[in-house]
Design goal:
The protein is an alpha/beta fold. 30% of the residues lie in helices and 22% in strands. α1 packs across α8 (325-338), α5 packs across α7 (221-237) and α7 packs across α9 (349-368). Bound molecules: nicotinamide-adenine-dinucleotide.
């Protein structure tokens, strides 16, 4: 048997209702810590990456380090990529699809989950097609363009009895687990103010890059980066925002940002009275989280990128080991699906929908100049 740690035991291998069936090869053995007979499938969750761009390459590294998941298939429209990925990751020919043959994946028992890593405007279609093919789905952020689209994706997965997660890698990252604890346990009292911002300088990006195309990106910096700031506000406070004001910044590269916004700033109000301000930018670099509470502060800088992150409170610095964020996320999701258990709410499709409700509100506030109530 392959390396089997106690963590990798699959205890509840009984096939539950409400999820696609993973067909395990069962192996029984003694768990020496509990002296009980355990059953471990020895099987990893077989994942097919759909869209082989920059982030898919990073996910492939995460899959190589994952204890519970493995790269078993690919979906790509580029034959050269199919060939090079096939060779690099030893992917069997029968597990390679293009966008036309995609739906035939329904007949492939060797793929359990499809990870949609396509441009944002394709997330909805491929999530729904994956669900109809009977496969679990992880879809990258932002989940879709509208709350209505998110709901359709959730419904499609529910109807197909497959699980749906959004690729929220930071929920598995130790610095983020710590700021969530500091905020929700009120270690420094109630959090009153959060500033969370993220920016990448896109100067020189080619005009045909999909991030500049509204029908593929859905929007500019807010669609690309905003969800990280919104997420950190929500999980540090443990509350949902009630209203928002927002402003588009004047464009400094109008020749590039023709269809989508370059920079946007917003202010969220929460029921406790906390205010969260954020800017997401395409013309400068920033990567920062700062929370001010009644009796102190905590911050991360860098905070949201792939790290390494640095944390600090008024009392001390805090640094946790650098982890492979994608492997941690894939393991967190993979082990639950292998156990036929539901996914936690903080990475579910419903969570992606909650973020989309805030994104819709931010755009409406920036477009109208009004304060928008979020209900
Ligand atoms: P990318 O441009 O590098 O890759 C996109 C892939 O989609 C390419 O392989 C491209 O060939 C394919 N594609 C298929 N149809 C296409 C079309 N009509 N137009 C353009 N490309 C098409 O993009 P990326 O950076 O890998 O981003 C993909 C998704 O991953 C996005 O939704 C993005 O928001 C998300 N992402 C998430 C993280 C994260 O940390 N969670 C990081 C980066 C990107």
């Amino acid at each position: 048997m392959n390396k089997v740690s106690r963590r990798s035991f699959v205890k509840n291998i009984g096939l539950g209702a409400g999820s696609a069936t993973i067909l395990p090869m069962l192996v029984s053995f003694e768990d020496h810590l509990t002296n009980r007979k355990q059953t471990f499938s020895g099987k990893k969750l077989n994942i097919a990456l759909c869209g082989l761009g920059r982030y898919a390459n990073i996910l492939a590294n995460g899959l190589a380090e994952s204890e519970f998941c493995q790269l078993s298939g690919i979906i790509t429209g580029t034959p050269e990529k199919a060939e090079s990925w096939k060779r690099k990751y030893s992917i069997p020919e029968k597990n390679i699809y293009n966008y036309e043959s995609f739906d035939k994946i329904a007949d492939n028992k060797d793929i359990d989950l499809i990870y949609v890593v396509l441009p944002n405007g394709m997330h909805k279609e491929y999530t729904i097609r994956a669900a109809k093919a009977g496969k679990h789905v992880i879809v990258e952020k932002p989940m879709a363009f509208t709350v209505k689209d998110c709901q359709e994706m959730i419904d499609a997965c529910k109807n197909a009895k497959v699980q749906l997660a959004v690729g929220y890698r930071l929920h598995y990252e130790p610095h983020h687990i710590e700021i969530k604890r500091l905020g929700q346990e009120k270690v420094f009292g109630k959090v009153r103010l959060i500033h969370a911002s993220l920016g990448y300088n896109l100067t020189g990006v080619p005009l045909d890059d999909w991030h500049l195309n509204k029908s593929l990106a859905g929007g500019g910096a807010l669609m690309n980066l905003g969800v990280y700031c919104i997420q950190s506000n929500r999980y540090v406070l443990g509350e949902e925002p009630i209203s928002v004001t927002a402003q588009f910044a004047p464009k400094t590269m109008p020749e590039l940002f023709i269809e989508v916004e370059e920079n946007i700033t917003w202010q969220l109000n929460f029921p406790s009275g906390a205010i969260c301000t954020s800017t997401v930018a395409s013309n400068c670099n920033i990567d920062r989280f700062y929370a001010s509470a009644e009796n102190g502060f905590f911050e991360l800088s860098p905070a949201i990128s792939y790290g390494p992150f640095k944390g600090r409170t008024g009392e001390k610095e805090f640094d946790f080991p650098v982890i492979n964020q994608q492997a941690a996320q894939l393991d967190g999701i993979g082990k639950l699906i292998l156990k036929e258990q539901g996914l936690p709410s903080h990475i579910s499709g419903e969570e992606g929908l909650k973020d989309m409700r805030v994104i819709e509100g931010i755009y409406k506030a920036a477009e109208t100049g009004d304060k928008i109530e979020l209900s």
